[in-house]
Amino acid sequence: MLIANPIYDVVFKFMMEDKKAAAALIAAIIGEEVLSLEPARIEYTIPAVPASRNKKKPKKKKKAEAGENEEKKEQTEIEAKMKAIANYTVCRLDFTAHISVPGGQKTVHIEVQKAKLSSDIMRFRRYIGAQYNSSGNIYRDNNTDKSRQIYCIFLLGYDIGLPKNPIIHVDNRVTDVVTGKRVKASSNEFINSLHHRSWIIQINRLRKRHRNDLERLLDVFDQKHCWSDDAHYLNVDDEKFPEKYRSVYRRLASAVVSSEMRAMMEAEDDFLEEVRKWERENAKKDMTIEEHVKAHEEKDRTIEEKDRTIEEKDRTIGEKDRAIGEKDRTIGEKDRTIGEKDRTIGEKDRTIGEHVKALEEKDKTIGEKDRYIKELENRFAEMQRTTL
């Protein structure tokens, strides 16, 4: 049996507009009995006709004018794409639900968000934050303002890194820090007012073999059932569908014959293709920028290494200069020592010279005395001969 594919936001919105179908889906996911369900707000921004189909053909411009405006036109197109992507939000539906609890009922705020793009996580944070601040989630009780507990349901068209867990429940687990034991506080007003419960469904990870009624119900999201080459429709086995969830199945089946619904799904296809194209282009630019950054970082590292090498060489040269300076000082000291020794030797040489001169003078005096004695001896000998 053919049903419209609820992976498309327009189909999902159509299904959730039926209170019975919406209550059945939400009750199955949260595992609690929904007594009544009222839509609080539906935020849905996919246009019925994509922007590319609404564009009017521009008038021909002169070549000179076109050349001047080329850069401006390109910038305008980029800004338009960014604005379109910024405006494209997840399909977000808010409900006020009365849920059965032991001994009565409680009123909670349920936020259902469905997204196909992993970049939508920041929007999730903003939306949840807005719900905590919303006056619509505050009620009066005994003249006191109190806040409703928030349930968040995320239906994701991408993986979050938990491939073995297609359906995840994130609950308020209250634990005594000292003993490590769990504290029963499911109805505690303080905790419920400041913490929300979440259910995360990874549509791409839904199992082929179903283990419970919830997995059988979520089979309407399984994209493995796409009909032929037309992803707008799923071919599911209605006989395996639980009777209590028939309202969901019938609602989706009724959308198959709607030509308007098909046109809106095609519009969504066109728009998402534009978004993905922009993301691919942006990713390429990011890669180019990253490559440039890496190249610059590599150059910086090379320059730093060269600077370190130069510093090492400068230190080596400085050490050599200091060693040469030490050697020069040692040589200078040696030269001064040699100079002093030379002066000492010179003084000694002068002293010796003076001694030599003195000896020569003595030698002359002795020679003269020797000659005088010789003369006296000769005279004495002559006198003796004369006397004889």
What does this molecule look like?
The protein is an alpha+beta fold. The chain has a domain at 2-51 and 79-257. It has nine helices and eleven strands. The chain has helices spanning 9-16, 19-30, 51-54, 63-87, 121-133, 189-194, 213-217, 246-254, 259-387; strands spanning 2-4, 34-43, 91-101, 104-115, 138-141, 144-147, 149-156, 167-170, 197-202, 226-227, 230-235. It has a six-stranded mixed β-sheet with strand order 2-3-4-7-9-8, with helices on both faces. The chain has a three-stranded antiparallel β-sheet with strand order 1-11-10. The protein has a two-stranded antiparallel sheet with strand order 5-6. A hairpin with a 2-residue loop joins strand 5 and strand 6 (144-147). The longest helix is centred in the last third of the chain and has 129 residues, at 259-387. The chain is rod-shaped and about 190 Å long. 19% of the residues are buried.
Comma- or semicolon-separated keywords:
388 residues; 6-stranded mixed sheet; 9 helices; 54% helix
Mean pLDDT: 80
Proportion of helical residues: 40-55%
Low-confidence stretches: 44-58, 81-89
- Give the strand tally: 11
Distance separating the two termini: 189 Å
Rough outline: rod-shaped
Major β-sheet annotation: 6 strands, mixed
User: In order across it, which strands form the biggest sheet?
Assistant: 2-3-4-7-9-8
**Alpha-beta content class:** alpha+beta
Count of DSSP helices? 9
Note the beta-strand portion. Answer: 15-25%
User: Radius of gyration in whole Å, from Cα?
Assistant: 53 Å
Q: H/E series, N to C? A: EHHEHHEEHEEEEHEHEEHH
